[in-house]
Description:
The chain has about 130 residues and is of the alpha+beta class. The chain has helices spanning about 30-45, 75-90, 95-100, 120-125, and strands at about 5, 10, 15-20, 50-55, 60-65, 110-115.
Amino acid sequence: MKLDSNNHSVFSLHYHLVLVVRYRKHVFDQSLSEYAKEMFVRLGENYNIELLEWNHDIDHVQIIFKAHPNSELSKFINAYKSASSRLIKKEFPEIKQKLWQEMFWSRSFCLLTTGDSTIDVVKTYIENQGKK
């Protein structure tokens, strides 16, 4: 496993993010997905967030990214949802017809941590510290 580092820490912080379109409307296609992905990459640079994987279905996107310990994840996600909602509706005006309110994304999101080890492996490792 390759670790990232900065001046004061060594880390490996990977996340799985799921963002759902408001009312689960079927609006995603390849061009919209690419546009949303590019915005994620650009905005992520300001928060020390790097996109690792992106895919979409007709009503949601699934994202794997890595972050630094000082990355403010909830601020980033809210900033991304706000900016991308506004710009997507501007760039793809046909979407306004499918969504009858201003928001593009659902209010909620799913954010999961990921890693090379399961929580059970880490618990066992910690429990066995100092034992021979």
